[in-house]
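Closing statement on the PBG sub-project.
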Amino acid sequence: MTSHHQSGAEPAYGTPRPRRLRRTPALRRLVAENRLHPADLVLPMFVKEDLTEPRAISSMPGVFQHTRESLKRAAVEAVEAGVGGLMLFGIPRERDAVGSAATDPDGILNVALADLAAEVGDSTVLMADLCLDEFTDHGHCGVLAADGSVDNDATLLRYRQMGVAQAEAGAHLVGTSGMMDGQVGAVREALDHAGHLDTGIFAYAAKYASAFYGPFREAVDSALVGDRRSYQQNPANRVESRREVALDVAEGADLVMVKPAMSYLDIVAETAAHVDVPVAAYQISGEYAMIAGAAERGWIDRDRAIGESLVSIKRAGAHIILTYWATEVAGWLNNGREL
Ligand code: PBG
């Protein structure tokens, strides 16, 4: 008997009752319009040169700067959980004005890529951040001109070399994330000339100058003073993302990414509606920290907030999501848990 009878009210026949489909976990599962799969999730990882044991990142509880050894173990764990791929960031011992360690085959990012290529090979998709900010002593994503501005075209020369170094180290995809104009075309050309026709470009196509990158600065021991507003996008702009994404696709991007994710779901939806390459979104360090921090204080239900944030990114139109929770959430999904 329904509550209508118990309360004596006449059931209103013909009343649409959407709640019927929400009654049990099985009904909700059957009619879910979007669901996450472990293969949708990409795990960003940090590896630091000369580290003897993994080091916790205080603003990202549960995330570590890895040693080469602990990186391999975490990568195997992620692959066994079925994640779609790994995105690698390197933190070198020494930094200089042009980010020399980024293009050195013995530089930390390149040796770690080779380690992972040997360890997990083609059982996952190996990706690397293609940007100079972890490698420069000033912390900017490119090389500087005499007046201190970031020199777009001089930076492209470095990105070309970096892309080739990462392809040679074993990256399946290189993640152009520096927001220099022409970077996708430049890296594509360099890869092709070096014979790396099959190495793809995962373009951070719409990337905003965001305060939510904050914890990432700690994650990579960033030397940056100031901000990246002269090359990353203004959060006020939406139409501009169409242009950025279209340019990257025209220059040869194999996949495009929107970043950050949660404050930019309109951009994710718009990008998904306009391109015919796979669309990804990056749930960045500050998004992670907000949920982790509030959950630590008991202010929100951690696991539900994680699940809700990820499915909202998928609902907006991202088929691939970069998240520091990738391995953990893949485990939940493998156990059939309702998010
Ligand atoms: C550039 C890069 C950044 C992030 C990914 N690639 C930093 C930036 O653009 O300032 C941020 C990722 C995160 O915050 O989780 N190397």
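Residues 129, 131, 133, 141, 177, 213, 216, 228, 284-285 surround PBG (CB under 6 Å). With this model delivered, the sub-project is considered complete and its resources will be redirected to Aim 3.
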